[in-house]
Amino acid sequence: MFDSIVLYFESIPPVIAALYATLFTWFLTALGASVVFFFKNMKRSVLDGMLGFTGGVMVAASYWSLLAPAIEMSAGEGFTKVIPASVGFILGALFLFGLDKALPHLHINFKETEAEGIKTKTPWQRTTLLVLAITLHNIPEGLAVGVLFGGVAAGIPEASIAGALTLAIGIGIQNFPEGIAVSMPLRRMGMSRRKSFMYGQSSALVEPVAGVLGAVAVTFFTPMLPYALAFAAGAMIFVVVEEVIPETQQDKHTDIATLGFIGGFVVMMMLDVALG
After folding, report:
1. Beta carbons within 8 Å of 113's beta carbon, 6+ residues apart
2. Radius of gyration over alpha carbons of the chain, in Å?
3. What is the pLDDT of residue 181?
4. pTM of the model
5. How much is the average pLDDT of 45-55?
6. Exposure check for the chain: N or C terminus, fewer CB within 10 A?
C-alpha cells in the first residue's frame, strides 16, 4: 500500500504533494481533537505520556529525516561537510527562539501567570494562549515536510518522495495525541465540546501553510536545501527542549512522560529506516 501511495505522490507536482501531506498531518490533529466529543476528562498521566511521545517523534525526525540527509547532501569533507547543517540548525533554533519571545503563548501544563512572549495591555484569554503554544510546535513540522518535497522538485538525489511521506506519517502520528492534549484541557476548563474541538484542530492549520512555503522556497533556491532541512530540525529541537519536555515535568507523572518520549523516538526511527 505504501508503494502505491509513493507512486501517486510521484505523479503529482511536489508542491501539491507537500500540501496534501501537510493536510494529512492537520487531519490527524483534528482527529485527535475530536476525542473531546467522547470524553470530558482524561488522566493527566495519559496526557503527559502523549506529550512525551510527541517529543520523541520530533527528536527522531530531526535526525533521521532532516539532519542526516542535510549532512549527506552537503559537499566537502570533514568540518566543511557539516557546516550547512550546523548553520541551518542554529538559524532554525534562533527563529523559534524569536517567535517564542515575541508571540504570547502558554504551555499546556503551566499556570496563566507563566505565559510567555510579549506582554499586551489587554490580557489574552487562556484559550488563545494555549492554542498559540501548540501552533508554535506545528510551524517547524509543516516546514520540515515541505522542504523535503521541495528537494524532490529540485531533483536532489538524497531527497525522496518516500522519505518525505515517512516524515509526514511520523508527524501525523504525533499530531493525534497533540490534538488531544489541546482540546482536553480546554474542555476541562468548561468550554463546549465543539469549541474545544475547533480550537484543538486550528492549532495545526499552520502546517499546510508552512509546508507549501517550504516546498516553494527550496524549489526556487535549490542550494539552500541542506540549510532548510537543518533549519527545520533546529526549530523542532528547540520546541522539544523549550516547550514539550518542560510541559511533561510539571506533575508527578515524569516517568510516564519519559517512557512516552522513548516510545515516540523508537516509532519514528523505525518508520524512517523501514520506509524512508
Report:
1. none
2. 18
3. 80
4. 0.86
5. 87
6. N
